From TrEMBL:
This protein's name: Aromatic-amino-acid transaminase
Gene Ontology biological process terms from the UniProt entry: L-phenylalanine biosynthetic process from chorismate via phenylpyruvate
Highest taxon in the source lineage: Bacteria
Single GO MF descriptor: pyridoxal phosphate binding
Occurrences of domain Aminotransferase class I/classII large (ranges): 27-385
Organism of derivation: Mycoplana dimorpha
Length: 389
């Protein structure tokens, strides 16, 4: 039977992991998949994560199932980190998920079950967004979010397009650190888009995967918090992969805000049912680590301090990269104002392939660069290679 299956291409982004690993050239540079690297090129385990793991090894008494909804204490603490005061007293349903992608998929399945037919995505976006929504049976409608040649957020175009969305349709927003462009919505723009969403009866799904890597832990949720104050219903997908460095532990959560407690209860039972028929129950380890850290003042403050040093390192590299690349592309001074791990360079795929073949610089064909993959000592050389294109 399997001979009826057509062979599928590898995921182009994830394929970079293997291609980079296999390259034996010294001085190779990985600007591919979105993982944080330090000045030694390592993706470190946070000190607080190590300490929490030690405590878990000593103190954990069982490995029994956690149930399809996961650990309510983890969910509450992560929600507090994500939404702060804006998230209190809302009718909220929460389910622990395998990573942020698991949360987006559960959100998509829930939307499909709720009767949402279409979801609006600003382009460019993380390539897996479209794939996940289509896999859940939703129709994807796109609008322009970011203009690569001028490196600007197309806010007016976005608002005009969303005026065409009908009540009952969904719209995806990135909480901060837009993937793949680093483009930022101002506080006024968050207020305006929140009002449009509320007035048009749209359902917002906010993807929060990089909190703490943009302007800081609180600032990176400010837009989301504005939205929460203005809409009756929302879905929020949260990932702990980057800001807790728990990539392979698949740690995340989906939160749904409903208009009433009864509706929130129904949403929770539906999310739990969808989880049950998909992966049954979420992995525990990463969530147990996050819960321990967020519940312990000393661990939490050490974790936040280490995350802040990562954020500052990325922001510093951004400044240097922007200054260097602007020598040829004036417009790329914008990289300094963008936030998070990514920027999207105005390169042709052929340029990307030349950088890979001639200089062992790895990035996806889109021209997205993971700035967090760059060491300070490499910036000047990498800039020269870009300028030589
Ligand atoms: C990325 O965009 O590189 C990360 O979010 C990793 C992934 O799963 O694609």
């Amino acid at each position: 039977m399997f001979d009826t299956l057509a062979r599928q291409p590898d995921d182009p982004l994830l394929a970079l992991i293997g291609l980079y690993k296999a390259d034996e050239r010294p001085g190779k540079v990985d600007l591919g998949v979105g993982v944080y690297r330090d000045e030694q090129g390592a993706t470190p385990i946070f000190r607080a994560v190590k300490e929490a793991e030690r405590r878990l090894v000593d103190g954990q008494t069982t490995k029994t199932y956690v149930g399809p909804e996961g650990d309510p204490v983890f969910l509450e603490r992560l929600w507090d980190l994500t939404a702060g005061r804006a998230g209190r007293d809302l009718a909220t349903a929460a389910v622990q998920t395998p990573g942020g992608s698991g949360a987006v998929r559960l959100a998509a399945d829930l939307m499909a079950r709720t009767g949402v037919r279409r979801i609006w995505l600003g382009l460019p976006t993380w390539p897996n967004h479209q794939a996940i929504f289509k896999a859940a049976g939703l129709e994807v409608v796109t609008f322009p979010f970011f203009d690569v040649p001028s490196q600007t957020v197309l806010f007016d175009g976005m608002m005009d397009a969303l005026k065409g969305a009908k009540a009952g349709e969904a719209v995806l927003l990135h909480a901060s650190c837009h993937n793949p462009t680093g483009g930022v919505l101002s506080p006024e723009q968050w207020t305006a888009v929140s009002a449009l969403i509320a007035n048009s009866g749209l359902l917002p799904l906010v993807d929060s995967a990089y909190q703490g890597f943009g302007k800081g832990l609180e600032a990176d949720s400010a837009g989301l918090r504005t939205l929460l104050g203005g809409v009756p219903e929302a879905l929020i997908a949260v990932s702990c992969s980057k800001n807790f460095g728990l990539y392979r532990e698949r740690t995340g959560a989906i939160y749904a805000i409903a208009a009433t407690r009864e509706a929130a209860h129904s949403v929770r039972t539906n999310l739990a049912g969808l989880a049950r028929t998909s992966y049954s129950m979420p992995p525990d380890h990463g969530a147990a680590v996050v819960s321990l850290i967020l519940g312990d003042a000393a661990l939490k403050s050490d974790w936040a301090a280490e995350l802040e040093t990562m954020r500052v390192r990325v922001a510093t590299i951004r400044q240097r990269l922007a200054a260097g690349l602007a020598r040829r592309w004036q417009v790329l001074t914008a990289i300094a104002e963008q936030e998070g791990m990514f920027s999207l360079l105005p390169l042709e795929e052929a340029d990307v392939m030349r950088l890979r073949a001639d200089h062992a610089i790895y990035m996806p064909g889109s021209g997205r660069i993971n700035i967090a993959g760059l060491k300070s000592a490499e910036v000047d050389t990498v800039v020269e290679k870009f300028l030589s294109l």
